[in-house]
Write a structure and sequence with these properties.
Blueprint lengths: L1 H31 L5 H14 L2 H32 L4 H9 L7 H12 L3 H14 L5
Helix pairs in contact: 3-4, 3-6, 4-5
């Protein structure tokens, strides 16, 4: 009888060791898994679904245009507001505004600054708006 109990205990201990080994193997496997970050997953979803799907890509293009317009408007309003609040630094603010355009050469920017300095607020707004519609804006 004792021998039978001893065999059962050994069998149970063996199963416990086996479970321990499997448990350890399981966590080792988990550690070896490459799990992408949440940002990476979202980017993949965005690229695979929204950009490649004709239906969604049209909305994405419209959305990108809207975002660019908002960025332009925010920059424009911020510059105008800064000039109003601190007219002594008008040159600096106009330079910041002009730096948002890739297609304007540094020499042209200098000339524009000099002409913009002579303008009243409404004329300056008009000239800046015109510039934004003509040249490529960089965010």
């Amino acid at each position: 009888m004792e021998n039978n109990i001893s065999k059962k205990i050994k069998l149970i201990l063996s199963k416990i060791k086996n479970i321990n080994s499997q448990y350890s193997d399981f966590f080792t496997s988990l550690d070896e898994l490459v799990i992408p970050s949440k940002d990476s997953l979202i980017e993949d979803i965005y690229n695979n679904i929204l950009l490649k799907n004709d239906f969604f890509s049209e909305f994405t293009q419209i959305s990108n245009k809207t975002i660019m317009k908002l960025e332009k408007d925010q920059l424009f309003e911020r510059i105008i507001s800064q000039i109003k609040s601190n007219p002594d630094k008008k040159t600096i603010y106009i330079q910041q505004f002009l730096d948002s355009f890739e297609d304007i050469s540094p020499q042209d920017k200098k000339v524009m600054i000099q002409s913009f300095l002579k303008l009243n607020e409404q004329s300056l707004r008009d000239q800046m708006t015109s510039l934004m519609s003509i040249f490529k804006f960089k965010a």
